[in-house]
Design brief:
Largest sheet of chain A: 5 strands, antiparallel
Number of strands of chain A: 13
CATH topology of chain A: Glutamine Phosphoribosylpyrophosphate, subunit 1, domain 1
Structural class of chain A: alpha+beta
Oligomer: homodimer
Number of helices of chain A: 5
Strand content of chain A: 25-35%
Largest interface: A-B, 53 and 53 residues
Distance between the termini of chain A: 47 Å
Radius of gyration of chain A: 20 Å
Number of domains of chain A: 1
CATH superfamily of chain A: Aminohydrolase, N-terminal nucleophile (Ntn) domain
Helix content of chain A: 25-40%
Strand order of the largest sheet of chain A: 10-1-2-11-12
């Protein structure tokens, strides 16, 4: 499993991903799931991947090959981020179809991969998409300013409570980390290193605010301790239940 | 769907349940999922139900019938709470088997029900069990002092962060409410009224600390507002990210 999320803010886009992959409990590995493609002053795109690792690696490799071979359509030729989302969706479906149907190696095998694609192409506002295994995609909205892929449930409530379009990017990044940490605690197939990146709207620069935290990074330990302490305090300050109690028989 | 949970504390047992049931988006109803059986100074048992409503209602009805008909085994004759868990597991499997196999009305139909059973029988410590649709059961432990059934993922992280065996019962009840509220926000098939009950260890009394909050109860509104405010404050007090940022190209 995997957990990745991206948030669309007035200030720009926040991306966060874990690095654990597994194919059964004894095939656990570490792979970065955050991929960046950038042309200074023209376009800046970030891709997060979840699901079948072979499929997502094949898609990322094909993106690179299409750039090198200057094919009819590639990341440099896209006019809109949504065109790139279509392109990735098609490649993903094509890759999956090689391993399904009559050629499927076994029942229950799932070649599906899910992607989050975000970024900006000159002349347009930043865009954010989630691309389903079926190749279609949805975008975020002001009412629902974030997208998640992989093991999404554990980390969702904190996003619902904190994230608004006007949330400052540093708060959004901390919220992404807490959402990630909650998921790591609850699901052994999600794990560090954690990568987190902020793309500032209209910067169109390859430079980005970025950090990567491995399992023993002191910041991660301090964040966990601080969050646990603060959450306990938050509980102590909730309204007392004494007014609602009734004694029932 | 449904969400119920129970917590085992040094002080006793906390139970919390929602009341929404649904069979498709246009068959949403309200049913209590908390059932109490009690003999003063001898035994006090609480049952929470999730899954197929017909199965869980049939099990609860059978428990009542066995009491009225004074059958060979019933709640009054159990020596241990685990015996009651076995009894409920067997009834549940029997009830489900009526609707599966060759008699199954349609593919994809699921008669499965899951239960949480907790309480105390005189001479023994309080016990807490989760009973699977297959009829077997597990108990809570000091390392994992709570059990959940139904839509469990959204509300799990807050329990992991707060609940310890020495948590005061009022804090545990507020934590159960916050866990429930997080789930309600994220999943439309979980909803109020919320019921919450505290059984004090060794009381063996039918009296219990109990409350029921419907959707418009002012306490629920105040709890939500207070929690949202406190959580934001908790975020503002997290260690700054400035030390971990690196600018990448």
């Amino acid at each position: 499993m995997t957990y990745c999320l991206a948030i669309t803010l007035n200030e720009g886009l926040v991306f966060c991903s874990d690095s654990r992959t597994n194919a059964g409990a004894d095939r656990v590995s570490t792979y970065s799931k955050m991929h960046r493609f950038s042309v200074p002053f023209d376009r800046s795109l970030i891709l997060l991947t979840a699901g079948n690792l072979a499929t997502s690696q094949a898609v990322v490799a094909q993106i690179q090959r299409d750039l090198e071979e200057e094919t009819e359509f590639n990341l440099l030729k896209a006019k809109y981020v949504s065109e790139v989302a279509d392109y990735i969706g098609k490649m993903s479906v094509r890759e999956q179809s090689k391993h399904t149907g009559d050629n499927a190696p076994m029942a229950g095998f799932d070649a599906g991969a899910t992607f989050i694609l975000g970024g900006q192409i000159k002349g347009h506002a930043p865009e954010l998409y989630m691309i389903y295994p079926e190749g279609n995609h949805i975008t975020a909205s002001e009412q629902h300013p974030y997208l998640q892929i992989g093991e999404t449930k554990y980390g969702k409530p904190i996003l619902d409570r904190i994230i608004r379009p006007d949330t400052p990017y540093e708060t959004a990044m901390r919220c992404a980390l807490v959402s990630m940490d909650s998921t790591i605690r609850s699901n052994a197939t999600v794990g560090p290193p954690l990568e987190c990146l902020f793309y500032r709207a209209d910067s169109l620069q390859p430079q980005a605010q970025y950090f990567k935290l491995d399992e023993h990074h002191p910041y991660l330990a301090r964040l966990r301790q601080s969050w646990d302490d603060n959450i306990r305090q938050a509980f102590d300050n909730l309204p007392s239940l004494s007014e609602v109690f009734e004694t029932v028989k």
